[in-house]
Task: inverse folding
């Protein structure tokens, strides 16, 4: 398996880094402080193909591979976890489920506007009582004429308040458990689709996280993802979407870890104590050496998962391993970054404080670290509890 980046992938990394440093870094702190979504960046991101990275060009996307997409997520996260998260939710969740599981008509109608940045996507799975136990969701969809009526609520929906297109999971046959879940397409402004509070979060504050409510939301049959054949197949599509999404969230954590490492190296070379830069102290050197080693290991795990996905091979175990390791490395690396910065690292004057708060989500979202260990254990053939 070749992990050497291609010239095209290296060019994408360079392009994404330049965009992140020139357009995103100057506003990253403001996004965090004001819970602000920089809508004016969307056309610029669309022009670079960032709004539909893995969508084929014929559907308005950039048509890049999974490795390249995750490079983009990593590079944006180096300076802003919030923007990277919103991009990952739009590409990997909002677009991906419809693009991978939808009918040709649904793909033609909904994917190109999202890929061109003319519409934002959101994915509505999590509920107040159904987080890790996704199959336990309580939102219902009842047959109503030539459509379905949905009732229920969702929580922690990334992009909720800014989205135009929603992928909504609901139970069409509660007696069948996971096999009774169906995915629907909802549109912003429809009667019965309500927006609740924006969550006031520890980190990722520039990425809007919302509550959604469905009160007799009626959706026609052509909004069932996959059409008639998609009824009861929503959970299968969810699992496929989550597998790929875990590589992206791992890449997000990787980017935050890399950003914290880069900031720490720069700070350690400039900060002087006892007459010399603190980078000359073995204690600091070893922290940086360990950070560099673990970040590189995380990148290789995630690249392996992405390469397997691009090759059309099973990658569930590899995605969970990459996401688990990268998110926990991210949490550890940002903690070390604050320690290297000392008192300055505990203030908002330096970006490592924000990175520390942002990366915690990566140990929770799209399957917590505990869930990843459950998935990995299952792929190892261990007995289930």
Result:
């Amino acid at each position: 398996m070749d992990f050497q980046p291609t010239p095209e992938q290296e060019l994408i990394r360079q392009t994404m880094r330049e965009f992140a440093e020139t357009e995103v870094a100057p506003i990253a702190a403001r996004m965090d402080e004001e819970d602000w979504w920089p809508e004016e960046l969307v056309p610029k991101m669309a022009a670079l193909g960032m709004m539909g990275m893995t969508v084929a060009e014929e559907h308005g996307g950039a048509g890049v591979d999974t490795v390249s997409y995750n490079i983009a997520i990593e590079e944006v996260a180096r300076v802003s976890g919030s923007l990277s998260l919103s991009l990952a939710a739009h590409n990997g969740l909002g677009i991906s489920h419809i693009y991978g599981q939808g009918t040709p008509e649904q793909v033609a109608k909904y994917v190109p506007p999202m890929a061109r940045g003319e519409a934002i996507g959101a994915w509505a799975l999590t509920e107040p009582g159904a987080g890790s136990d996704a199959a336990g969701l309580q939102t219902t969809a009842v047959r109503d004429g030539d459509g379905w009526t949905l009732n229920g609520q969702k929580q922690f929906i990334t992009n909720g308040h800014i989205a135009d297109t929603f992928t909504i999971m609901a139970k069409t046959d509660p007696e069948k458990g996971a096999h009774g879940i169906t995915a629907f397409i909802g549109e912003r402004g429809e009667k019965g689709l309500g927006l609740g509070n924006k969550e006031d979060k520890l980190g990722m504050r520039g990425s809007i996280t919302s509550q959604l409510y469905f009160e007799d939301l009626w959706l026609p049959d052509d909004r069932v993802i996959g059409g008639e054949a998609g009824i009861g197949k929503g959970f299968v599509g969810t699992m496929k979407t989550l597998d790929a999404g875990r590589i992206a969230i791992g890449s997000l954590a990787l980017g935050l870890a890399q950003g914290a490492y880069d900031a720490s190296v720069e700070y350690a070379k400039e900060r002087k104590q006892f007459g010399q830069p603190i980078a000359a102290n073995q204690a600091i050197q070893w922290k940086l050496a360990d950070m560099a080693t673990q970040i590189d290991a995380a990148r290789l795990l995630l690249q392996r998962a992405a390469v397997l996905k691009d090759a059309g091979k099973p990658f569930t175990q590899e995605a969970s391993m990459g996401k688990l390791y990268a998110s926990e490395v991210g949490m550890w690396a940002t903690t070390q970054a604050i320690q290297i910065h000392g008192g300055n690292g505990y203030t908002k004057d330096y970006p490592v404080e924000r990175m520390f708060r942002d990366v915690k989500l990566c140990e929770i979202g799209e399957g917590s670290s505990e869930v990843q260990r459950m998935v990995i254990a299952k792929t190892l053939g261990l007995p289930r509890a």
User: Anything to note?
Assistant: The mean pLDDT is 97. The longest strand covers residues 147-158.
